# Entry
Amino acid sequence: MRDRSYRVVADLTLIAVAGATGWVLFGWVDSWGVAAGLFGGSAAPVAVAGCAVSAVLIRRRAPSVAVVVVAGLVGVDPLTGGALAIVAYAAGLRWSSLPRRLALSAACLAVPTAVTAVIAAEGPLPLLRYSVMVVLVTGVVCGVLPGLVGALVGQRERLVRALRERSSSLSRHTAPPRSSPDCGNGPG
# Structure
């Protein structure tokens, strides 16, 4: 029961942080002036906060979808990288195979870069280069690194669980040593 209540509090805190970060930062700074065009002037912070909260909500059931949604959001505005860190860590926890980990890293880099390239393609070349570099750094810091940390933590948890199961299995199947009956070799 305590573990479940801790999980609910942690989820609510993550949702609040992701929503507030998206709302405040995206409303405060629109890096490329894209918010008004994509979501409509005053609706941009609400839309970004809603996307971030939705991704945090689905991160356990559909981590692939959550990573792609938030990575696309980072392509629109790199200041939403906090939500990417949350979903990348959660995806890393669940994914134990190397191909999935590589896909996570690739999505954290390729999706925001593609979105940024499409958005900034109309501008001058130096702005495109700068925008792509900012998104790549954000993808590495807020996506790849938390994803790898999540993968390491998840691997450790799986290993500890397997060791505990093995230990309990060995303790059940190993009989305690019996004392041998007296064979008449003692005094008396």
About this structure: The mean pLDDT is 77.
